[in-house]
Structure formats: C-alpha cells, structure tokens
Design brief:
Helix content: over 70%
Distance between the termini: 44 Å
Number of helices: 20
Low-confidence stretches: 294-314, 480-484
Strand content: under 5%
C-alpha cells in the first residue's frame, strides 16, 4: 500500500503543480492569495487521503478539491475564465481582483476548518477500527448469493419501473403523483438510499462468510445503472465508487484489487452511457410536460430564452457529443461559482443566513436561484432545475469568515463521529460506512436547498441502521438458543 500511496501522490503532483503554475499566470487577483490557496488545497487533499484518514475525509477531499480549487484553476487556465459556459450562475459577482481574492479566502478558510476537524477527530479516536477482514475468500458463487442477487435485481427493476412510470422521483421534474403518500416516500427512499444499502449489507455479509461476492457486486452495478436511468440521474458513479473504494482500501490480495478495478471500469463505462441516455430521456420527458402544459402557446420572450437554455443542457443532440460531455462533466465540478455568487451579494449577514435557513418548500425556484436572479427552468411549469450553493457558500451568507470556520468545523466533527457510530452499530461494516459517508459528503457539497429538511436524510440513514441493529440482535438471540 505504501507504493500505491507514493504513486498516487506522484500522479497528483504531476497533474496539479503544472495546473497551479498556469493558473497563477492567469489569475487576475493577488498572486499571494492564489499561492496560499494552492498550498492549503494540496495540504488539505494530502492530509485527508493519508493512511489515517476516514471515509468522510476521503470523500470531502475529492469533492471539495474538484469543486473549488480544480474547477476554478481549470477554468481560468484553459477556458479564459469563461465561467458562463459551465457555470450554474455567479449572481452579481463583479470579477474584480478584490472579489476573486475574497472568494479564495473563503475557500482557504473552509479547507483549513475541515483539516482541523479531521485532526481533532483523529486525536479523539486514536485507535483505528478493527474491520475483521478475511484474507482467504473463495470466489465460488453460492446458491444463497445467486438467490439474493436475483431477488435484489428483480426488485430494483420493479422499483425503477414504478418510479419511471409515475415520475415519483426524477431529476428536473416537479410532479405530484397520485400514489399513496407512504408508498411514494418508501419508493423515494428505496431509489435514493435503501436498495444500495441492502446491496452493501449483503456484500459485507458474504465477505464475512469468506465468500467474495463477485456476482452480487456486478448485479449492484447493473441495478444502480437501472435506478439512475429511472431517476434521470447522472450520478450513479458516486455510490458505486464509495463501495469499490471501501473494498480496495482494506484489500491485501493483488488479484482482488484487480477485480475491484475491473468492476470500477465497468461502472465508469455505464456512467458515461447514462450521461447520454439520461440527457435524451430528460429531453423527451421535458417535451412531454411542456406539451401537456401547452407551454408553447403561453410563454413570453423571457421564458423563451430560459427554455432554450434548459433544452441545451438536457438535449445532447444540440451540440457535438464530445462538447456535450465536456459541458456536463466540467459543469458538475460544483462549488466555486456559488462562492462567487455569495461574494457578489451586497446584503450578506445574519438576516440573509436566517432567510436561507427558513426556506419553505413549494416555491418555484430555490432561495439561491432567487438570490442570483438566475433561473434555468421555465416558470409555471412542472420542469424543475434548481442550483445549490454548497455548505461553504451557504455558511458564508453570514458574511463572517470566523462563523464559516467554526460552523464548518462543527459540522464535519459531527459527521465524523457519525461514521464511527455507523461502524460500531453495524459490527464493522466498512462498506456501509463508506457509502453513508459518501452520501453525507456529497450532500454537504450540494447543500443549500431546504436546509432544515436535511433531517430527512439523517432519519433515512438511521432507519436502515435500526433495521441492521434489530437484525443483528435477533441473530445473536437465535444463535444463543441454538447453542443451548
């Protein structure tokens, strides 16, 4: 693993340092700020990916590195600071050198807070968790693994079909189905979290039973692909990567590492496939809703522009395929433009933060969209396309760097503790801990819409953990009576 770490760091520096040098030449603010930004970013990424790092550390490192330093650097280096082409909107940012320096200072403060939070967590939990890994695993497919794989695959297809048919949860669609409230929310939970939770639970179960569940891992990839299409989502790679990373991180056998890499490459291929397929599906669904609403006859000249922009985002036929992939992938490097938008806001302060915290559901556009005066989806339509500030920009609504630092530090500490609790409750299920930490890190990266409703995510996770805890207790009780 030491050699792999060295290779990893070598590749990281070979890619990052040249980009930093080019970006420094193109940065219009103070060079000192960009140099400090890069130094802190590199320290942030290296520290949060070292051998003592947690899963939450790892995913925060990747998401926040890509969303802030990498996104900003690549756009000023290779796209002539063309933030319009790939951005979710930057509000009233004035593009002055002082404003850019302020935006970098916000990111530097945030990276430092996360490093400190990680350091405190490591001081509290000095002893690394014991995952009780089995090194001698058979590759034989047992009847139980085959049956569970088949059941989960068929169940995933069924849930995906119901979701796609009734538009229960689809990205870009704000549609109220006639399904029972309980059933609709159960399907949302299964689509977003539940089904993948069951997959990782059983993958870990078979590893503990000394079976390497190759079939079940492959079926989990196929199931996530189908579920992502039903949600019109391009994010299938994130959940799967968290599973593969957990498998790889604590694997000792070279052959198993190669298999994990193959599984990841299969997932990556399907991920790129979903980008194109999902965009076409979104376009078709959007056209369906627009026709149903008779939108073509009622739209104004202003909404015409918005609709055409939205169509370009969702319809890959509007651009050359490579240009389309470039736009989608780079625009997903979310984060820095949101900081720019908040920096450009003149009324930062506690009142603005309070208004953001108390955002109510049911409004056509998000609080952040209204703040920027940037609307991507047409008004008076079932189509929905909101933008999100992320936890860093959201906390900077306050206009206070000290508040940003300490509040972000506390948030990361809480979720670092939560990861330890997950590992404890699940008897060392590092796969589930990795998946949950990835979901939390991703949510922090995309935080900001209906912030007080975030409790639903935590409750959803706790629901599954309660099921695992109940299952483990019943299994122990059954084993006790059998042994008697």
């Amino acid at each position: 693993m030491i050699n792999l770490r060295r290779i990893f760091l070598l590749v990281f520096f070979l890619l990052s340092i040249p980009l930093a040098i080019i970006s420094l030449e193109n940065y219009i603010g103070s060079s000192i700020y960009y140099i400090l930004f890069s130094v802190v970013t590199f320290a942030f990424f290296i520290y949060l990916t070292n051998e003592k790092s947690s899963f939450l550390d790892n995913f925060l490192a990747i998401f926040f590195f890509l969303g802030y330093w990498f996104s900003f650097s690549i756009k000023i280096s290779f796209y002539n600071s063309n933030f319009v082409k790939f951005s979710d909107g930057f509000g009233f940012f004035d593009f002055s050198s002082d404003s850019f320096d302020e935006a970098l200072l916000v990111c530097i403060t945030s990276y430092t807070a996360i490093i400190v939070a990680s350091k405190i967590t490591r001081l509290i939990f000095k002893k690394a968790p014991n995952f009780k890994l089995n090194t001698n695993l058979t590759n034989k497919i047992s009847k139980k693994e085959f049956n569970i794989s088949l059941i989960l695959l068929l169940f995933s297809i069924f849930i995906a079909f119901i979701n796609f048919k009734f538009h229960i949860y689809q990205r870009g669609i704000n549609f109220d189905s006639n399904l029972n409230f309980f059933i609709a929310n159960l399907i949302k939970w299964l689509i977003l979290l539940g089904i993948m939770f069951f997959f990782v639970h059983f993958i870990y179960f078979f590893i503990q039973k000394k079976f390497y569940p190759n079939l079940l891992i492959f079926i989990s990839i196929v199931a996530k692909f189908i579920l992502s299409l039903s949600m019109l989502s391009r994010a299938m790679i994130f959940d799967l990567s968290s599973i593969f990373w957990a498998l790889f991180k604590f694997e000792n056998k070279k052959m198993n590492m190669i298999k994990i890499l193959v599984f990841f490459l299969i997932s990556l291929f399907l991920f790129f496939l979903t980008i194109n397929m999902t965009s076409k599906l979104r376009h078709n669904v959007n056209q369906k809703f627009l026709l149903l609403e008779n939108f073509q006859e009622t739209r104004s000249s202003n909404t015409e522009t918005v609709h055409e922009s939205y169509e370009r985002i969702t319809n890959p036929e509007k651009k050359k395929l490579l240009d389309f992939y470039e736009r989608v992938l780079i625009s997903r490097l979310h984060g820095f433009e949101a900081v720019m938008a908040v920096v450009g806001e003149k009324d930062k302060g506690w009142a603005l933060l309070k208004n953001a915290l108390t955002e109510k559901p049911g409004k056509r556009f998000s609080f952040f969209d209204t703040l920027k005066k940037d609307y991507r989806a047409p008004q008076n339509s079932s189509l929905k396309s909101i933008t999100l500030p992320g936890i860093i920009a959201f906390l900077y609504y306050s206009g206070s760097l000290s508040f940003l630092f300490f509040s972000l530090l506390i948030v990361v500490l809480i979720f670092s503790l939560f990861e330890k609790i997950v590992i404890k409750i699940t008897n060392g299920n590092y796969l589930l801990a990795s998946l949950i930490s990835q979901i939390i890190a991703y949510r922090l990266w995309h935080f900001g819409y209906l912030p007080l409703a975030s409790y639903k995510l935590i409750l959803s996770i706790l629901l599954f953990l309660a099921l695992v805890l109940l299952f483990n207790k019943k299994k122990k009780l059954l084993n006790f009576f059998i042994s008697k």
